Amino acid sequence: MAAPKSCALWSYCGRGWSRAMRGCQLLGLRSSWPGASLSARLLSQEKRATETHFGFETVPEEEKGGKVYQVFESVAKKYDVMNDMMSLGIHRVWKDLLLWKMRPLPGTQLLDVAGGTGLAWVLGDAEELPFDDDKFDIYTIAFGIRNVTHIDQALQEAHRVLKPGGRFLCLEFSQVNNPLISRLYDLYSFQVIPVLGEVIAGDWKSYQYLVESIRRFPSQEEFKEMIEDAGFHKVTYESLTSGIVAIHSGFKL
Amino acid sequence: MASLLSPVLRRLRGLRRLPGLPRLAAEMPLRARSDGAVAGPLYSHHIPTSPLQKALLAAGSAAMALYDPYRHDMVAVLGETTGHRTLKVLRDRMRRDPEGAQILQERPRISTSTLDLGKLQSLPEGSLGREYLRFLDVNRVSPDTRAPTRFVDDEELAYVIQRYREVHDMLHTLLGMPTNILGEIVVKWFEAVQTGLPMCILGALFGPIQLSAQSLQVLVSELIPWAVQNGRRAPCVLNLYYERRWEQSLRALREELGITAPPVHIQGLA
């Protein structure tokens, strides 16, 4: 594996994903109806009405995938501008830090799930990836795993498609560790963000779902345990911005 | 939490099932809110909001409506978040009038599903129904583009503002105003005087910002005085059961309301 270009890669780091990925085999996975097909099969076998959360609502499990799909159909057009407005551009710093941790080199086989768009992309389901076992060096998912109906299945799939020695990296909203900041964050999330969504994108409900789904996601420790349950080792996490987001990392041995 | 919910529960028990009324609040999913705001929606599409959210929405929608005049949804949001007090006054005015009280009771809606377009088409020339249909055709608008009310925290007042929105096209027909920017501003002035809704007043005052000097001149010297005069002279336009007056001659209705012909023909302007 050639190393000389690594210095050049770092200089591109601050300018965004695609440039930093130059030289790596980057495959982006656009999630379609995460979990919908799989959970429908399970339900017909078990004949049991299982429910799950959709933000603060409770919905039949087989409906969640479709509802999440609708949310993202709705927000797609103004996705980037809304991310900038809501986080005041800080989401770019978080993503840069993820890349920095990853240190991708030319020749790295990287899979970015729920990426939306990318250099070469494939449509698939995070709970049932259309790839063979032991294929990728790095699996990343940024702000995507929160929306998957069966997170444990997505983690298992991540484990399956990684090569031995491969690394799992997840950037996701997490729990704020400081009580004062937590109150300010809650105030901002529930009072301001849906208003921003309505004014900028004409869509209150999707952004209400966004802030509610963040509250529903497991804490740093809980998520670490889930990653370990999927078979990963040396699982660590790093909280950013007082825990508003966290980067979780694990290795397949 | 219980003390926050009890006004909602009282309102739930007070609801009557009326034709045209959206689903009862009791059938709505209740959502727990971490900010402690009122939980249950009171009508279909209702999004309960805190005072802070309403203030932010009002400011944001006003700014966005000025920045992007094609965001009609922002004008609607501005109306809903600033209109509560005025809507109460309008609702009381409707209650005191026999025709208005019937409208509140029966809650008619104007949409392609509730209008019998074939029947309107067959009405004689010069009748309200025929002229309303002509207005829709000529200006290529549909009665279905009115967004449902979302941010009014009272289901009767939500209907009042919905009715006001659906009656807007009637006002265009009554005043003989086209749907270009100048025509819309004139109708806004009429509505501002008639309803007192803050959104109408803001729209009337800030709408002209983007007009040419020539249009502004005509607006200020002729059209606004005419609109204001007619608005003050006419009885409350929300008290007209338009759906029962389709056959009435438009001219007769204008006379009844004291609405005179516009001072200038503005189709070519703006």
TrEMBL record, chain B:
One of its GO terms (cellular component) is extrinsic component of mitochondrial inner membrane. Its main location: mitochondrion. The keyword Coiled coil does not apply. One of its GO terms (molecular function) is zinc ion binding. Keywords: Lyase, Membrane, Metal-binding, Mitochondrion, Mitochondrion inner membrane, Ubiquinone, Ubiquinone biosynthesis, Zinc. Belongs to the COQ4 family. This is Ubiquinone biosynthesis protein COQ4 homolog, mitochondrial. It comes from Macaca mulatta. The lineage of its organism: Eukaryota, Metazoa, Chordata, Craniata, Vertebrata.
